[in-house]
Amino acid sequence: MKWIRLRYTKWFNILKDGLHRNNPIVVAVLGICSSLAVTNRVENAIAMGLGVTFVVMASSAFISLIRNFIPGKVRMVTYMVIISAFVIIVQMFLEAYFPSIASALGAYVGLIITNCIVMGRAEAFAVKNPVRYTLVDGFASGMGYTLVLLVVSIVRELLASGTLLGYQIMPDTWPNWVVMSIAPGGFFVLGLLIWGIREWSKFYETN
Amino acid sequence: MSNLFELILASILNHNIALVYILGMCPLIAISTNVKNAKGMGLAVIIVVTLTAIINWPIYQLLLATGTEKLALLVFIITIAAVVQLLEIFMEKFVPSMYNAFGIFLPLITVNCVVLAVSLFFVNREYTFGETAAFGFGSSVGWALAIILLAGIREKMAKISDLPKGLQGKAIVFIILGILALAFIGFTGLASI
How many domains would you assign to chain B? Predict the structure, then answer.
């Protein structure tokens, strides 16, 4: 009974929207740049996913907090400044505690600023809703993003080098598919993933 | 001089910012449904990226001199927004014909990651001023090349192809991009960056 009641709360619906029905990558096709460039290894994908989740949650909450004081005309610039402040925090955190991941991600950490997911959630959700819901929404979008990143990176790392998180999975005779670790592999895996998910969920684009 | 030429060639072909570094995907996918719009967007990107790279380089030297290079990200994004805004006003006032042709693409460029990426790359690779200008120009030309190629393929494809339902729209774009990226790998070793 409790489960049924939970399904109709706003919290649950926001969470489900971000993870499944409105998944930022496979349904809305947002934030592709970073999702393809960093998914050649699973650890990079995890770092990127968590970084984006943090930035979405923190910046949405902050924007929602001051939403009544932002003049409509300069709201884009305001978002940009707030978002870039949080991205700088992520960048400094990675450099301090995970220097190897920071150097592997390189400039792509800074590019979280231009990730459309962050800006999109700020514009579509954070300016209209109280703080407690924006936190759930940010978490859901971030996790939906991380989930897709994980799937793509697992496929790519497994095929490209036969490992997962550095552990050997495939037999030693596995021929490494080098193409999977560079750009074309990312495009193909994501394209096929979107196709698969759309066939499975019967959600088609009508154009 | 030959060094700069090599840098331009490399950033157009074998280090193409769209097909090798996978940057600027959102507008690449959204605006590539026909060749005319793709050309407008490509031209706008060439102008803005080259300008912002040239402007951001001295600003970054200033930040380095004052020891505040951690703030580079924040400063770059503000410069980019300001340049785009100024360019829009300038074009509307002095070259209205150009403004009508691709003025609508200008606001979209602020969130195009190519612009920010070029600024971040010259920081990471410690380019000189000349190299930065060459790299900015080459990268944006490479991006324009990618979007025009993609738009050409999509335009033809919309007329003749019979795709499964799930592949229509965005999914097939990724497959096309994958094949284009494979083709660009053929340029590997042509010039070094």
Answer: 1
Angstrom distance (rounded) from CA A13 to CA A18 = 9
**The predicted structure's pLDDT at residue A7:** 62
Q: What is the CA radius of gyration of chain B?
A: 17
Sequence spans of domains, chain A: 10-201
Q: Which domain holds residue B146?
A: 2-185
Residues of chain A with pLDDT under 70: 1-8, 18-29, 203-207
Write out residues in chain B with pLDDT < 50, as ranges: none
In this predicted structure, what is the pLDDT of residue A140? 86
What are the residues of chain A with a beta carbon less than 8 Å away from any beta carbon of chain B?
Answer: 29-33, 36-37, 76-77, 80-81, 84-85, 87-88, 91-92, 106-107, 110-111, 113-116, 119, 179, 182-188, 190-192, 194-196, 198-199, 204-205, 207
* Burial status of residue A104 (CB atoms within 10 A of its CB: 0-12, 13-18, 19 or more): middle
> What is the identity of the amino acid at A35?
S
**Per-residue burial over A110-136, b = 16 or more CB atoms within 10 Å of its CB, e = otherwise:** bbbbbbbbbbbbbeebbbebeeebbbb
pTM of the entire structure?
0.84
In a domain, B178, yes or no: yes
